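I have been asked to look over a protein record a colleague put together. What it holds is a sequence and that sequence's fold in token form. Please read both lines and tell me whether the tokens look consistent with the sequence. I do not need a full report, just your reasoning and any doubts. This is what I was given:
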Amino acid sequence: MNHERIVGTAVPRKEGREKVTGKARYVDDMLLPDMLYGATVRSQIPRGRIKKITFNPGIAWNEFVIVSAKDIPGKNCIALIGDDQPCLASEFVNHPEEPILLLAHPDRRALRKAVEAVLIEYDPLPAVFTIEESERCSEIVWGTDNIFKTYIIDKGDIDGVWSRADYIVEGEYSTGAQEQLYIENNGMIAAFDAQRGITVWGSLQCPYYVHKALMALCSLPVEKVRVVQMETGGAFGGKEEYPSMIAGHAALLAIKSGRPVKIIYDRAEDMAATTKRHPSRTRHRTAVSRDGKILGGEIEFTIDGGAYATLSSVVLSRGAIHAGGPYYWPNVRIRAKAVATNAPPHGAFRGFGAPQSLFAMERHMDRIAQVVGLSPVEIRRRNFLAPGETTATEQIVREPIVLGKLLDRALSLSEYHSKKKRFSIENQAGTTKKGMGIAAFLHGAGFTGSGERYLSSVVGVEGCADGGVRVLVSSTEFGQGTKTVLCQIAAEALGLRYEDVTIAQPDTAEVPNSGPTVASRTVMVVGKLVESAARGIQQTLMLAGMLGDSYSADEFRAACRSHVAAHGELRSWAQYEPPPDVFWDDQAYRGEAYAAYSWAVYVAEIAVDLTTYSVSVNDFVALQEVGRVLHPVLAIGQIVGGVAQGIGFALYEKVIWQQGRMQNSQMTNYIMPTSSDLPPIRVFFEELGNVHGAFGAKGIGELPMDGPAPAILNAVQDALAIGFDSIPLLPEDIFEAITAHSPASDSDVASGVR
């Protein structure tokens, strides 16, 4: 066998050459004969009843294909978890930008005027726009109580802990919506044939999500729906569930017109109409001993789901499970709920609920430290989870993680103590105040709880006629390195050269359902299955007497060619089987929430300019334990990109809402950090392995989103001695706080403290 290491080395990206030479084909590069272009007519109000639709006579409507809800051949919903979101509103609208009609025309330029020429009259209904308004239930906009989902996590005796506390520390923390802002806007092409059914090509993360939605919407059997992923220019969760909506719209237009239809959103429509990160509010009440040990606590985690349920229940689940951070809670009660408002539905975004709840946890740890009189470092050290202890869901920590050592290394790499000492002197003069902040956190890899068992993902590896090997998965590439790393895993498992392995483009007519490309599961869960399926090919060739125990890559290729020539198709399949020590109780919401966690400590160095009241991040250390790094360059890229998005989440990216509509849906007024706004992001890894992941790997894609915001705001408090508990933190927020601050208000952290 080839003993050259492939896993752990920075091999060239599989799709890299085509991307940099311009040969890669994105959905808007694709043209089909007689193709039409589609557009969406959307609601202009947050909530109401549709009274009348009028088509302005100044438009040649006979040239257009027009689709309404009555043209839907199947069920008028976007099938996902629940079926509450209509594909097209028929009688009521529940948020601005809700789709009502679809138009198609051979000339893309004719669509804008046509959309504007559709006049819709409404009977407006009262709407709600915030978590607090939704909770008051003065208007019921969903169900009977405006609540999509609730969870309760109970551990120990929380009711008996308060009498033993030396301190009771309370705090409330909030996070805003955040736009994914991928490079390539959403887009789909659909073609319909009465015999073959519907085929869609598009920019997406989860082919089988779209497949499921189209089956229900178009009333078609499984074999008459085909979904093909085109090259996809970024996603970050924003192309997890929403592509089902666009695919459905293109499919309906294609079915009615009998011609292929392309729908490509422009940036303004993409930002205004599609999903965002869920806004959140977290309330902590924590019982603490005199020596700084957490005795127990209550955590209330609430997210704004927007108008329909979509993925809110699973975002809520992950956020609730991560709400206690990497700390040992002997007693804890976590109450979580997702509520409805009349904004466009919120959905998946990198981190999936954990960045919201972990922001609150890490800000709260600094609050506890100040109340007890300990440093932010020491309060964490005294409460870290250790092997053998249990998480909030009573999952035993079996990994050999020593978080104190991870913390020490991060402090050393960042020169934390020496900088704090220097800044305390420098901050006594001048108009720039500097500070250091830390955040410790964890992130579970894979679907939560019984999710992976429910998915039962399948992957395939194929021995090809030319002697090469091809990986068959529905896991998608959108810049993060799926194609590259899965090919590395197959090559390493078979002892082949990296160039001997290729990977099929995700196409539901050709690849099995290996689950969605989300939840930091691709390398750990799908990669482990690829490793297993690859070894199945190896075993087949050995049992056939075509391959010995030791072989070269060329000998493998020869054996593979011979087997295919003699026997035809050579494929090996692997299906997910839950590990025997991983069990989750859905009813009690208790057990092994994740097969493995990644662990991290991040340190931010910031400066606050008291002339502009702006915060700059001057240095950032990101240290994480990730099992095993399979591709160093891609792994570092994932961390750097996540930290950059986290900096935007903390300091820049504010969605301006008015009556449920995003007002700043352009890149000129939705402010995100540019490269000149980012510090040196210094990335370091610890590798302890993972028995559940391919060659010891864990997931890392979402992890770096969790830590930057709390580390930065902790650093701002260190610089200014003023705490901020809501993000994004903008210059005007700092100005108002400094203006209002006086010696009499120095007790801001002590509210609710006994």
Q: What stands out?
A: DSSP finds 19 helices and 28 strands in the chain. Residues 744-754 have pLDDT under 50 and may be disordered. Residues 522-543 form the longest helix (22 residues).
